[in-house]
């Protein structure tokens, strides 16, 4: 076991890990686009991808709880939700910028 057990920090996305967070986000975006053949409606594709991403985040959190890295209590959830809210807002801004750029260049979101 690591000495870091019980020290997981649910951070707001910032410059400390910006490159890694963006690399993960880019892989998630690529995985979403891979599903476009089976879900041709872009709005349904994006909606299902968002739902899956949130479920995946919950799976990751559940793993941390099961490993004993974070306590399974309401206070810890509220701390994590505050970070999620901030990160979601960051993602919305990035998504709007990406979509505007793609639409202006290609006439569609890709």
- Sheet-strand content, in percent, reads under 5%
Structural class: mainly alpha
- Helix content percent band: 55-70%
Helix run count: 3
Task: State the order of secondary-structure elements, H for helix, E for strand.
Answer: HHH
Number of strands: 0
Radius of gyration: 16 Å
Uncertain ranges = none
Mean pLDDT: 85
Sheet of most strands: none
Distance between the termini: 43 Å
Q: How does the overall form come out from the CA principal axes?
A: globular
What would you say this structure looks like, in words?
With 110 residues, the protein is mainly alpha-helical. The chain contains three helices and no strands. It has helices at residues 18-34, 42-66, 74-106. The protein is globular. The model has no long low-confidence stretch (mean pLDDT 85).
Short description:
The longest helix has 33 residues, at 74-106. It contains three helices and no strands.
Keywords:
110 residues, single chain, mainly alpha
Q: What is the topological layout?
A:
Layout: H1 18-34, H2 42-66, H3 74-106
